[in-house]
């Protein structure tokens, strides 16, 4: 016999994502899901960003990797609360892993929660974690064609950071090509060129982050 | 690459639907996958084989249909069908649709054997 079902397979994840979002909203936390290829500079970005936001701004990080606690160790020096989530063979964070991560944090002492997703340009884009905003990094050494090759990562981004901009000259990087590709998939995202290493462009990123919080108040 | 987690999420509603009917075996599973999920059918089948092993879904055939994108322009409200690498609105030229289709994965139907239909 044939049974018609019509049930979303993603429903279980999305239900947990909704609960995550509710917990964040109840405690006034702004949550940002940071995604990119491995090596684009997600951890370095956070190492620079968290101290720059000032001591009055309380930051927490959930950091996803297949293995090791190295990123959590790096970020432990700058963020008040850090939890490493090891996904084992998992190529992305799930809403349930984030829910467990939230359990490990004192949510009453967090203004910004950064979720550093597993470095991967395909799978994390398809999974709702309950975040408020999505930020995607693309580093100059990755070349000009990644937006065209991985459009699903860039399409839902609220901000796209072109990182390691200090390497543009030596790598003869053509950012115009990148921006043309972005204009085909996402004209809504704020585009920020920056180098966490040299500090170039970082103020634009901090200003963007700070602008997001009041807009979220009362959500 | 995320096909295994998709299959892990598929199994509970699939088994529930079949067991509610008293099925002894699942023969065929029909899925609709939004294009944004970037599901690789071979990888999905391999994951399904592994996860279904030892359940009443073991040996079932997966039929996967892809769901195209559909959306509504946030700027001019025009409804249109973006493609996965081009979201430009044909009316206003912006690329910022609110997507209404092409993202989800839906279990559409299950073909199963009831006890009196089972082949000995």
Notes on the structure:
- The complex is a heterodimer of chains A (219) and B (120).
- By secondary structure, chain A is α/β, with parallel strands linked by helices.
- Chain A has a single domain, classed as P-loop containing nucleotide triphosphate hydrolases (Rossmann fold, 3-Layer(aba) Sandwich), CATH 3.40.50.
- Chain A has helices at 11-26, 42-52, 70-76, 95-103, 146-149, 151-154, 175-185, 202-216, and strands spanning 2-8, 30-35, 59-65, 81-86, 112-116, 133-139, 159-163, 190-193.
- Chain A has a seven-stranded parallel sheet, with helices on both faces.
- The longest helix of chain A is centred in the first third of the chain and has 16 residues, at 11-26.
- Chain A is globular, with a radius of gyration of 17 Å.
- Chain A starts with a strand and ends with a helix.
- By secondary structure, chain B is of the alpha+beta class.
- Chain B is 25% helix and 31% strand.
- In chain B, the strands form two sheets. Chain B has a three-stranded mixed sheet, covered by helices on one side. Chain B has a three-stranded antiparallel sheet with strand order 4-3-5, with no helix packed on it.
- In chain B, helix 1 (3-20) packs across helix 2 (41-52).
- Classes of the chains: A alpha/beta (219), B alpha+beta (120).
- The interface between A and B is large, with 34 and 40 residues.
- Strand 1 (2-8) of chain A pairs antiparallel with strand 6 (105-113) of chain B.
> Can you give the helix content of chain A as a percent range?
25-40%
CATH superfamily of chain A: P-loop containing nucleotide triphosphate hydrolases
Extract low-pLDDT stretches of chain A: none
Strand content of chain A: 15-25%
- CATH third-level topology of chain A: Rossmann fold
The beta-strand count of chain B equals 6
- What gross morphology of chain B would you assign? elongated
């Amino acid at each position: 016999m044939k049974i018609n079902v019509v049930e979303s397979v993603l429903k279980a994840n999305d239900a947990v994502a909704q609960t995550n979002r509710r917990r964040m909203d109840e405690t006034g936390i702004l949550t940002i899901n940071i995604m990119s290829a491995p090596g684009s500079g997600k951890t370095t970005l956070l190492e620079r960003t968290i101290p720059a936001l000032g001591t009055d701004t309380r930051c927490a990080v959930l950091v996803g990797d297949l293995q090791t606690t190295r990123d959590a160790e790096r970020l432990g020096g700058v963020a008040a609360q850090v939890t490493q989530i090891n996904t084992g063979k998992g190529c992305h964070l799930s809403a349930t892993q984030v829910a467990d991560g939230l359990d490990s944090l004192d949510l009453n002492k967090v203004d910004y929660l950064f979720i550093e997703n597993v470095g991967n340009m395909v799978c994390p884009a398809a999974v709702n974690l309950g975040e408020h905003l999505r930020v995607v990094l693309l580093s100059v050494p990755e070349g000009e064609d990644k937006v065209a090759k991985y459009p699903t990562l860039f399409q839902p981004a609220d901000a796209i950071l072109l990182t390691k901009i200090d390497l543009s000259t030596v790598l003869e990087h053509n950012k115009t090509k990148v921006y043309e590709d972005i204009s085909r998939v996402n004209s809504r995202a704020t585009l920020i060129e920056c180098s966490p290493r040299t500090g170039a462009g970082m103020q634009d990123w901090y200003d963007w982050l700070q602008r997001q919080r009041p807009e979220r108040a009362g959500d | 690459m995320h096909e295994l987690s998709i299959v892990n999420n598929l199994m509970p509603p699939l088994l529930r639907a079949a067991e509610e009917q008293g099925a002894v075996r699942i023969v065929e599973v029909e899925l609709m996958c939004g294009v944004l999920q970037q599901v690789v059918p071979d990888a999905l089948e391999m994951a399904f084989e592994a996860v279904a092993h030892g359940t009443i879904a073991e040996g079932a055939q997966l039929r996967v249909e892809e769901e195209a994108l559909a959306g509504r322009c946030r700027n001019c409200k025009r409804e249109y069908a973006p493609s996965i690498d081009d979201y430009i609105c044909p009316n206003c030229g912006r690329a910022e649709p609110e997507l209404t289709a092409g993202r989800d994965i839906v279990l559409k139907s299950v073909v199963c054997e009831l006890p009196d239909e089972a082949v000995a």
